Fold:
Amino acid sequence: DVKVTQSSRYLVKRTGEKVFLECVQDMDHENMFWYRQDPGLGLRLIYFSYDVKMKEKGDIPEGYSVSREKKERFSLILESASTNQTSMYLCASSPPREESNEQFFGPGTRLTVL
Amino acid sequence: QQQVKQSPQSLIVQKGGISIINCAYENTAFDYFPWYQQFPGKGPALLIAIRPDVSEKKEGRFTISFNKSAKQFSLHIMDSQPGDSATYFCAAGMIWGANNLFFGTGTRLTIIP
Structure:
């Protein structure tokens, strides 16, 4: 079974803090993704990575950065957290397109910025 | 802008009834159309998916209907059960580039006894 784990289920931070969200997958997948989920807006792609040290902006990258130093780990960084970044953050991974289009999601991290 | 439009935002169906969720897209580069199911406190999980070379795919009580000319696809849940209560997302993936998916805004489905 593919497993995608996220470092925290719930996180509370203060405005201006630097926040790290960690994601680890155990299936040797090339592709990893970070989404945020907000009611009525669905899943919006923040960043994705198709290889170690490679990253691409998604639809809403402003205020976020990412790091992928190892194949299994993809980190989302909020350099200076703001209240409008309060949201559910979901990490996903997928194999190459030639193998499957399916994305496997972690359980999510609910981040509250006060 | 939203590449995949999904409706309705919420849906209440009687147990045993048929639940129908609709999605529409514009980009003809999409060639993969999955539906994801999300229960509270969990991440989304793939439920069923279709490619544009077929008009329908059925897995148990779940069916995707696909209309290529109209650029629309829908999820039908037959004999809906309380355990089907969840949020459903349609999505679309492209024939080129990274293995991205473009998600709809989600439908919260509630099955009442």
Notes: The mean pLDDT of chain B is 94. The CA atoms of residues 42 and 59 of chain B lie 22 Å apart.
